[in-house]
Amino acid sequence: MSTAARSLLADAEPWWKGAVIYQIYPRSFADANGDGVGDLPGITQRLDHVAGLGVDAIWLSPFFTSPMRDSGYDVADFCGVDPVFGTIADFDTLMAKAHRLGLKVLIDQVYSHSSDRHPWFVESRSSRDNAKADWYVWADPKPDGSPPSNWQSVFGGPAWQWDARRTQYYLHNFLVEQPDLNLHHPQVQEAMLGAARFWLERGVDGFRFDALNFAMHDPLLRDNPPLPPTNRARRRSFDFQDKIHNQSHPDIPVFIERLAAEMRSYGATFSMAEVGGDHWAREMALYTQGAARLDSAYGFNFLYAEALTPALVVDALSVWPDTPDHGWPSWAFENHDAPRAVSRWTAPAHARAFARMKMLLLLSLRGNAILYQGEELGLGQVEIPFERLVDPEAIANWPITLSRDGVRTPMPWQGDAKDRGFGSIDPWLPHGADHGALAVDQQEADGDSLLHWTRRLIALRRAEPALRSGSSRVVSADEAVLVLERTHPGGATLRCAFNLSDRAVAFTVDGAVLVATGDYSGGILGGYSAVVMRGRA
């Protein structure tokens, strides 16, 4: 099949099916005003780099008005831009440039909770009979004054906070400063849909829904049962419970259908849920089931995995059967919360080879591929000293909890510049000591760099319908080697082989090599090597 014919096949699909999405963490991408914090004008200035990768869309982490107790996920105005990031006019300018460059724009929506500084919560906590009294989850204490249920916060300790104004507890599944919205309330649902409309009317192309399975609670406030013993470490009180009552309520899919209908009334927008927890597989299937719900979801299969193995990949793929009633998966190997994959999954001596293989694997999986800023450079996790920590969970549980700050450090643009091209000499988090050598300008000058490799693979994925949106079959998987087959109707069948170990293994190349990294000659597949072969048409 010709390249033109393959492109026509790809164009017949929705733009988001098989898309490569580039996540931008605004505080750390680029600083246009020199105050140490990245901002929207900084993103606008650096968008050409993102477009040059060949990605389909950008996803912006929160830039909304916020006291920043949880880096912007504590929203004080769902329709406002925090001054640290700029203005609504700056957002409109960013949107306009992104669209000129052919990039779709996705933004976060946080429907589980708000900031305690949000005017809605200020009014809600003022009395038991105000207009927004029931907009948040309030409950009386037990007769002995203790919290109304045993629910625990993600960040540790009880999920209930006493408030003397109402002589009641309010629910906070995350920080105390992040009270949970009562999304069962019709007026709260309408308010959140109103926030979605605000951004849709400004031209955004879709949403990523944060912690969506926390959006509704059990109104009966029943205690969570304990989790059966596992071999996983339990460092938070949250880890001891089966969270069936403070999240995962069966009415969430009903609200999702309202939300999805609202989005589709604005055109071909894209919806993607973040789903974590012990019942992630069931909930991702529910939230994306059928045409009336969300387009996609991603979970934590890879984000906190200690090792990248064939079994891990096979297990992740098994949750998304290629059937009409199932949604479309999205995959991320790292993000703003999860440690850099090259630091988690391989030794420093193998980082370069591993990063190339890992990128080819991510871009060969059936589903959307989410790249986190700097992943195209092979950035590793940064060790942040205690005195520079910003992450509230890491500060509270030092040194046990791995800081999320280590993956949120500033993007290195110029290797030899004092500010690494970020825009400020003393940014809100320190640069990685070895990130200068991996900076964008350094890799631009090296034709064999991971940056150039990433561009090549994204272009290949765009040109090959089998890779972008074809079906997927696991051919084989042992302790080291994973072999996948990708097929698209009317197109070629591609066989993709990945050695996820650091040792060479026996392997026979049985097709025309389309792309490869590492050693695949002489009947072996080298450590952290991979090859994609074209099969019969």
From TrEMBL:
Record-level Gene Ontology MF annotations: hydrolase activity
Domain Glycosyl hydrolase family 13 catalytic span(s) in chain numbering: 23-408
InterPro entries xrefs: DUF3459, GH, GH13_cat_dom, O16G_dom_2
Record key words, sorted: Hydrolase
KW Hydrolase (keyword) present: yes
Keyword NAD applies: no
Pfam families: Alpha-amylase, DUF3459
Domain of life: Bacteria
UniProt-listed SMART domains: Aamy (SM00642)
PANTHER family: ALPHA-AMYLASE FAMILY MEMBER (PTHR10357), NEUTRAL AND BASIC AMINO ACID TRANSPORT PROTEIN RBAT (PTHR10357:SF179)
Family (UniProt): Belongs to the glycosyl hydrolase 13 family.
Protein name: Alpha-amylase family glycosyl hydrolase
